[in-house]
């Protein structure tokens, strides 16, 4: 899910500070990325994010279809009062036997066990509370591979949702940014130039270069004598 990431930070009294569902994926990919988006409202597009925006142009149009015994809801607002999660599901399928399956659309390739699974599980947890039912599975649709991948919403994934939600709320409460990581994730991040990870990650070369800017030369020292 893309767009509308920096939601207004408000409290539902007496509930917890609200955490956007999309922030689960951002935090799982990189905590600093989530902090930049939520705290500083920074965001930058690249080829991948533009593709994602175009892909979601269809599924983010609210709609309600019924085909082959399956009711399909698009752009469905969801929330969870206890966890303080809120957001929009790309697609929710409701079957004749009562089964409910959230389907998250992604423009890139799917990575099993990755950040997208956490966002999907957060959607399932919200839907469970709203529809008062159990949702053991969800699905990720990858536009790059044009395949749909089934995801088990098991206890381990649910625990990741709760832990990640708590970590994001800590960032919001303290309005502080997590440290930069400066690893391979940065090469694929559209916010690289905003984050400046290699400058801020304490790399020796950059630290040395910055320190040298403030070392007085011998000539300057002699003039002050």
What labels describe this entry?
225 residues; alpha/beta; Lambda Exonuclease, Chain A; 7-stranded mixed β-sheet; 10 helices; 21% strand; globular; disordered N terminus
Describe this structure in words.
- The chain is α/β, with parallel strands linked by helices.
- It has two domains: 19-178, Lambda Exonuclease, Chain A, CATH 3.90.320; 179-225, no CATH class.
- The protein is built from ten helices and seven strands.
- It has helices at 21-29, 31-38, 47-59, 115-131, 155-174, 184-187, 192-195, 197-200, 204-212, 218-224; strands at 19-20, 63-67, 70-80, 85-95, 100-106, 137-142, 147-152.
- Strands 1, 2, 3, 4, 5, 6 and 7 form a seven-stranded mixed β-sheet that branches.
- Strand 6 (137-142) and strand 7 (147-152) form a beta hairpin.
- 30% of the residues are buried.
- Residues 1-13 have low confidence and may be disordered.
In short:
The chain has 225 residues and is α/β, with parallel strands linked by helices. It has helices at residues 21-29, 31-38, 47-59, 115-131, 155-174, 184-187, 192-195, 197-200, 204-212, 218-224; strands at 19-20, 63-67, 70-80, 85-95, 100-106, 137-142, 147-152.
Backbone structural class: alpha/beta
Low-confidence stretches: 1-13
Percent of sequence in beta strands: 15-25%
CA-atom Rg in angstroms: 21 Å
The CATH topology of the largest domain is given as Lambda Exonuclease, Chain A
Per CATH, the architecture of the largest domain is Alpha-Beta Complex
Overall 3D geometry?
Answer: globular
Percent in helix: 40-55%
Summarize model confidence as the mean pLDDT: 80
| Helix/strand order | EHHHEEEEHEEHHHHHH
Determine and state the CATH class of the largest domain: Alpha Beta
N-to-C terminal Cα separation, in Å? 63 Å
């Amino acid at each position: 899910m893309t767009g509308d990431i920096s939601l207004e930070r408000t409290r539902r009294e007496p509930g917890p500070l609200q955490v956007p569902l999309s922030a689960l994926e951002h935090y799982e990919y990189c905590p600093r990325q989530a902090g930049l988006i939520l705290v500083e409202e920074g965001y930058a597009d690249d080829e991948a994010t533009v593709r994602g925006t175009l892909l979601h142009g269809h599924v983010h149009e609210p709609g309600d279809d019924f085909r082959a015994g399956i009711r399909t809801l698009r752009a469905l607002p969801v929330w969870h009062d206890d966890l303080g999660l809120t957001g929009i599901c790309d697609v929710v399928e409701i079957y004749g036997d009562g089964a409910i399956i959230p389907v998250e659309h992604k423009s890139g390739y799917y990575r099993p066990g990755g950040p997208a699974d956490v966002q999907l599980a957060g959607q399932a947890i919200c839907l469970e509370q709203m529809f008062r039912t159990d949702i053991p599975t969800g699905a990720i649709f990858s536009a790059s591979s044009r395949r749909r991948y089934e995801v088990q919403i098991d206890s381990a994934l649910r625990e990741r949702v709760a832990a990640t939600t708590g970590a994001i709320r800590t960032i919001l409460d303290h309005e502080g940014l997590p440290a930069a990581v400066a690893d391979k994730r940065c090469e694929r991040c559209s916010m690289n130039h905003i984050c400046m990870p290699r400058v801020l990650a304490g790399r020796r070369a950059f630290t040395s270069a910055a320190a040298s800017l403030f070392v007085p030369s011998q000539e300057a020292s002699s003039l002050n004598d």
